[in-house]
Amino acid sequence: MAETTLFDASYEQRKKPLLTQTLERLRPIYSKSELNVLRIDSTSREGLAQRSGRGFVNRDILETVLGNLLECVAPGSHNAPHLHHQKRNFSEAIEEVADQLYAMVAQSFLAVTTDEIHLSTALETAFSLLWELPLLKSRALWNRFASLKDPAVWDAYLLHTGISREKLAALNFRAQIDAAIQERTFEPYQDYLGTLNLASVLDYQLQLVGSTYPGWRVLFYHDVAYALTRSESPEGNPHLQRAPVPLLPRAISELGGRYYQADLHPETQIGDANFLEHPHRGVTTGQTGIIGYGCVIYPCTLGGLSVKVKQRHPVIGDFVEIGTDTSLLGPVQIAEHSTVGTNTEIYGFVETGPRCRIGSSVVIGTIRGAAEAPGKIYIGEAVRIGDGTVIENTSEMDLIIPDRAQIPARSHVANDGFGFPRYVV
What we know:
Number of helices: 14
Number of strands: 25
CATH superfamily of the largest domain: Hexapeptide repeat proteins
Helix content: 25-40%
Number of domains: 3
Radius of gyration: 24 Å
Distance between the termini: 72 Å
Shape: globular
Strand content: 15-25%
């Protein structure tokens, strides 16, 4: 296939109405100040059409496009302000991103098939992602806001302005942040800051996170990759028909891993308003995993045990906190508002109720012993499990830990053969 056919007259004709609709949708989501700092790096069409390897777009262009998409959701956060090859006019900027995204998607299809019908699919798939920019922009903002749960956003600069550490230590900012996430408005946190004469703090903290925190960026890369795995029409535009893109979502995921050591599978379902703390130490999710919103996730592994094509990765509810060096393996389910401590391992068929507190260095799992298919472990609502505890089920019967049970530290709990917990001496 000739290189120039990616951007022939037919492409321009099909692109024009899609671009017009998209521009009408996107203009209202940007403030004047955002448009003033929006900078989109341009790439020559010859470069975009250039095949590399088995037809896949080269990584340098992929990095450029991801940076431009990052600019679209957080203007001024990625590209330098005064480079001569940047698009500053809004219409030109969005058209440039559309061309780049289309080329990446088209090259991905061409890498696995020579069927030219996929060029039309590539165009609609690219514009489906652009149609979702309002959603992606909102998700990126809430992921930045969720990062304010990190006490380090009260840095030396803020402390130097006269806020004492003693005063800060007595305050519970996380509760206000969670309330804001639940209500989908910054007001609870802003009002709380106002009562402390700290109203100006929010803007600085969001700037600090946007400029220096990696978690929200890798979550944005994942949002782009995830969008490219979808097949349904984007919300609000049933006329756009997209298809899962081969290769490209995994390439984006790989770049996210290269930059931030966060290996998020592109098909993992992840909510917004999540805070990835220290992702450079490694965060891993799997294809069938699900993560809710409002979570705090430290370096951990959310992996699988089965090699079968089925639900094989953990399901994490809303407002869950997962500690450092924790491993959740298999179809584990952690319900909302629960906490899993550091160095804990949970594997197999384990489900918790909401508001559980699982301590550090805990091991919970279902074990294949005499029973080929061991029963599940159900941990009830608001259960407290002390540090160093081991809970295992080798029985065919389910093991049920009742609601609000409190298991002391360093306990060893097994199934008594009737589904009730038995403490092993």
